[in-house]
Amino acid sequence: MLSRDLYSERMKASFVVEELTSIIYGKEANERRKKAFKEALNHHDFDVGDDICYLDRKEYYERGLKCATQVATWKRGMNFKSEVERRDFSMILGVFPTGFSVHHSMFEPTLKGQGTKEQQDRWLPLAVDYRIIGSYAQTELGHGTNVRGIETTATYDPKTEEFILNSPTVTSTKFWAGGMGKTATHVVLIARLITLGKDYGPHAFIVQLRSLEDHTPLPGVTVGDIGPKMGYAAVDNGFLQLNNVRIPRMQMLMKNFQVSPSGEYSRVGSPKLIYGTMIFVRAGICRESSYVLSKAVTIAIRYSAVRRQTQPKPGAEELQLLDYQTQQYKLFSLLAAAYAGTFVGDYMLRFYRESMEKFSQKDFEILPELHATSAGMKALLSDRTASGIEVCRRCCGGHGYLAASGLPSLFGDYAPATTYEGDNTVLFLQTARYLLKCAQRAFAGEKLPVGVMYLVEEQEIRIAKSSDLTRPEVLIGIYQNRAKQLIKAAASKFQSNQEKFSEAFDAWNASSVQLVACAKAHCQLFAVKTFIETAASKVCTFGVQRVLKMLATLQALHGIVEESGSFLQTGALTPQHAEMALEQTLELLKLIRPEAVALVDAFDLPDFILRSVLGRYDGDVYTHLLRSAKNSPLNKQEVSDGYYKYLRPLLKGSKL
């Protein structure tokens, strides 16, 4: 039964929801989404089931495998224009992370990015058609971020033209690789290449783990699941130990590095191309972050429209949670962040594709900027999404704590994104290193990349009245001035520490708090600028243009209010301006209030994707909350076994 509150909310919208949905996903991609959803809803095998929150680990894994294999079957018959579309299809219909996730996000991109044409011709058709399932094993028990420190070895034997793979220590055990525990047949393994007695450091190899006949581990391969985690119950993250496992020479990925039959090592391409796969994955994480955050915001806003609490005066109807200003402040800022992340993610994927075209022409000038931007934006957006899911859960009160709300599992499944593919603090420091180099170039009067031109540009910002703080050029200028000052301060701190410490690492470590701060400021500027400019560039009706502009403005103003200290500290704003920013933020909350439910509807997330009793499209929250409670396995017996074993003796006064 459709909630009267949700019906009323949808009637308030001033724009066409379907038009905004097409802008979010792109017209053609949106049509494919609708077709895929229709296919899923008509296919019984794809039914996730209402009991999913009551499944144990084994059942959860198998349910995920069931859905993943069904998606794989559909993909075989679809004509995708790019691997990004293939990845997005898996993300949208994957329902939750499964043992296939790394196959799509890491295994296939690595084969394409680091394999020769011959290797791609051999392995990619098998992977794309799911005749093999891949994983990616880099992290070890003893080494994560420090890739150069990994211990797994691949020693070349020129007599047999094979590599001999070994895990020489306990800490060299590969750990955490998604899908490797029970699903994958193959893995891209990162191991130290040793040939003719010389260690050339980490390189990538294709290794078969399991028989394609009966899925049993091959000789010398010890592989398994690492056990329960905070989230990712359907993903079999694995461990791997290798004992004298031999693979043919041509199973080293050789697009950029080669080992000849006699064992001679050589570089045949640019080592810089290795970054391509990593950057693609990080760009994908940026896009995925907005998709996940949109789920959490949809659940919280729909529930806040249905849930009523506290009478404003005796005899009056209780207020919707969405009418409380504090609820609006928390949720509408996250709504804006979800939209911003969508456009930033799209920009990052375009940036990646355009850069790869230049790389193919041996033009690597843009690589440092691409690497720094993808690292920083992955860190910023994944941090924002992980914290945002928790805010949404709290906004749903006690019911948000229920597994059936969908929010606990959403948080548990997404939280690892803040550490995988680079710990976020480390990634911000990588961005900061790039920014310091740009600051040095600016000081020397050298040409700067477009993304950091603000370091040498003078920004004159005039704010006569509070409404001036809604002008795009003013907001962008404020963020530019703050980033510029924080970068200069970090550069100055690092320089002084270089004079203080004899070791470069000590100087860097002693400056790291300021370095992270300047990197975050730069990335926040990038997000604000991208959203504002993208929203303004969209060809759409006035209603859609209006709500996009409001969200872009809210994103910028909310950031100023939340981090007013750094804006004041750097002189980017005065205390009076900070007050004006809060005033305009609160005015925007009023304008967005009647559009809120329609704005989350535009994400077009069916109930079978949300898996939330609180975020249902029909808003019939309480009926489904009670139904979910009755389905608890503990309710299958009117009197539990625990009563007879423990409770009854206690109640009867007997000794256990």
Largest sheet: 8 strands, mixed
CATH superfamily of the domain at 48-269: Butyryl-CoA Dehydrogenase, subunit A, domain 2
In the CATH hierarchy, what is the architecture of the domain at 48-269 at level 2?
Answer: Beta Barrel
| Strand content bin | 5-15%
Distance between the termini: 50 Å
CATH class of the domain at 48-269: Mainly Beta
Please state the average pLDDT score: 90
| Oligomerization state | single chain
Spans of at least 5 consecutive residues with low confidence:
none
CATH-defined fold name of the domain at 48-269: Butyryl-CoA Dehydrogenase, subunit A, domain 2
Number of helices: 22
Helix content: 40-55%
The total strand number stands at 12
* Class computed from helices, strands and strand pairing: alpha+beta
From the structure above, extract its key features.
single chain; 656 residues; alpha+beta; Butyryl-CoA Dehydrogenase, subunit A, domain 2; 8-stranded mixed beta sheet; two-stranded antiparallel sheet; globular
